[in-house]
């Protein structure tokens, strides 16, 4: 037989990262070959369902792996693996992975079990101390933690560190491999699978020379002192003896590959032994096959992963040196500089980017390079007591007075006042009753009540209204927007309860006073009072901004309202958990806005409020608003909860999740509408259907039914106006 050329490879060996642990590895490969944890190599041609390895040494079975080959008498490759891992049932087959009976997408992680593709292998790693690898062809490999020593059973043996004993002995009688393997059979409830018939050893021509040549060749020179070669010689000779292919060397590939794998587990670094004429392997895209590569691949998402990897090398397809795997654009191997970036689920090519109100970001080598830009600050009063300052400091004020929310520290150009009042059955339940915007030192005062009524200098006024460089209008039935020319905008929510969002332009940074803080990008001094003292508690700070001395002082309260009622707590946890559900309607915003604070507020308010559903829906809507401010528009979040506002829109109006323009009105068709030039964060609520316009009576009508307007006066449809000889 002519010698076979081996793959060209540099013949240098370095120290392996992972210490030898071949004694913790069980495997099966090729033509029904098995290796136990204790090093016995045997052949068992069983086609039934067998226990590959199970935890048998204690009352509680932490793992159980079962293997089936076939179907068909000529099929030697595994076809199905069933794994029970501490209560989780994983079923592996070619092309499918089921967990507890349901198909999953990889990578998958649950209950301490990670399932992923790794260099052509299907890998299952469990925190209980188990790693399982299947190359989706002939090779299965199981590695166990040493804590399971002498506690296993199955085809992998008892893991007691002693070959032969006690796997191949039963009542002091030596078992053949076929007898031992048949004892591990695990038939289904209606299955009666036949045990394999012992094979005649037979004779064949002596072609063992090629096996010895292969296993002692230069690529395996560092393996001979680590792995017992004789057992693999026997397996190789068997494969060669039963080979029916023209190219005999192709029958040796599985055993040579297994020898290489065991060498790596024993602490060796096998070299590339494959070649164009010897067990060639192909790789997708521009990847290259290596016999001993890092198991932790560098990717665009994690370009330095291999530097932190301590596992032994594995065989598989790898990127050429200097390149990483593009796990974002799925373009194979690329230089790091060619990696794309991801933001909010969208992929950005190198050199492109995105902008928000506060940052400009550019994708560079798979990483975002961001520059801060001047951006507005937002202060909010949520649920009648939860305050978030311009610098995003969170605190709670169960007040019973009127308070200064925000004003310039050194002028009276504007002042925003919030009236908080006790409104429920408990002292801790407070509501935002009204909001006041004072301009020009009190020359013009706008007041918006929780009922939606608007007063200008104490006179009831219909919206929209413009006065003293301020404009108030309703983009939907749920919100009122107050826009000033002083860098101040108020977004006032009315449904289901009153909440307010105060937005200040960047030019006001460091110049604000009130409950909303000083807007200097430093949370530590947000409790600074007008005298310059930084108060230590929210209550003491809030009391310095009362506008009426006779009001009672706020007291610090640490009571958890959910602890007072088990039923309220269950209700709150059930519905508020929608905010944090990774598969729920709010999940797409989790990367942009952390829901934890909103979840805490939701629990508190839902348990504390007399009208639990209203407070629940207000808490959910406040998270929706925060997401919209970051450019993430959520829809369908009211499905199954908070549906009442959708069904109670005034006649002729319809509900919409995201409204970002001025309301379509008949008046705007004739005269320029100043509110349409005002930009605001999208809101939800009731508005006119497409193609209709809101008339002065608050009814949505088609364009043909709209009146005309001349100098602010409405002229009914079909009528004409005579003025100075002209007919309108």
Description:
The protein is an alpha+beta fold. Among the domains are: about 290-340, Laminin; about 340-370; about 375-545, Mog1/PsbP, alpha/beta/alpha sandwich (Protein Transport Mog1p, Chain A, 3-Layer(aba) Sandwich), CATH 3.40.1000.10; about 560-645, no CATH class; about 655-715, Laminin (Ribbon), CATH 2.10.25. The strands form 13 sheets. It has an 8-stranded antiparallel sheet, covered by helices on one side. Strands 29-28-27-40-39-38-37-36 form an 8-stranded antiparallel sheet, with helices on one face. Strand 36 (about 465) and strand 37 form a beta hairpin. Helix 7 packs antiparallel against helix 8. The longest helix is centred in the C-terminal third of the chain and has 18 residues, at about 610-630. Mean pLDDT is about 90; it is low at about 1-20.
Low-confidence stretches: 1-18
Q: For the residues shown, what is the average pLDDT?
A: 89
Reported CATH architecture of the domain at 377-543: 3-Layer(aba) Sandwich
Helix content: 10-25%
Q: Mind telling me the C-alpha Rg? A: 37 Å
Shape: elongated
Number of strands: 49
The count of helical stretches stands at 10
- The main sheet orders its strands as 3-2-1-14-13-12-11-10
CATH third-level topology of the domain at 377-543: Protein Transport Mog1p, Chain A
Briefly say what this structure is.
This protein is α+β, with helices and mostly antiparallel strands. Helices cover about 15% and strands about 30% of the residues. The chain has an 8-stranded antiparallel sheet with strand order 3-2-1-14-13-12-11-10, with helices on one face. It has an 8-stranded antiparallel sheet with strand order 29-28-27-40-39-38-37-36, covered by helices on one side.
